[in-house]
Design a protein that fits this description.
- The protein has about 90 residues and is mainly alpha-helical.
- The chain has one domain.
- Strand 1 and strand 2 form a beta hairpin.
- Helix 1 packs antiparallel against helix 2 and helix 2 runs antiparallel to helix 3.
- The termini are far apart.
């Protein structure tokens, strides 16, 4: 008898489990979206968020990282705005 396997979301980290495959695909897509079009600072924080979620962290566990990403995004946008104004 094969024992069921578990991942961060409960049953089903086996390759033949369609639900596990969907979760893995969603997680990969989330990771891609988090790092698309971001500054290196944003990519670094987003990568940490992705790794924490992949390791099984809950959203409440990573709220400080999410806040840090939000602040960094605002700062980077402000810096880009300043750079653009300086070039005119």
């Amino acid at each position: 008898m094969t024992m069921p396997s578990y991942d961060a979301y409960g049953h089903g980290d086996r390759e033949d489990d369609p639900a596990a495959q969907r979760r893995a695909a969603q997680l990969a897509e989330l990771g891609e979206e988090l790092v698309a079009g971001q500054t290196w600072r944003q990519k670094e924080i987003a990568g940490r968020i992705y790794q924490e979620l992949k390791s099984g962290a809950h959203v409440d566990d990573i709220k400080p990282l999410i806040s840090q990403l939000r602040r960094t995004t605002i700062e980077d946008a402000r810096d880009r705005g300043t750079d653009r104004r300086g070039r005119r």
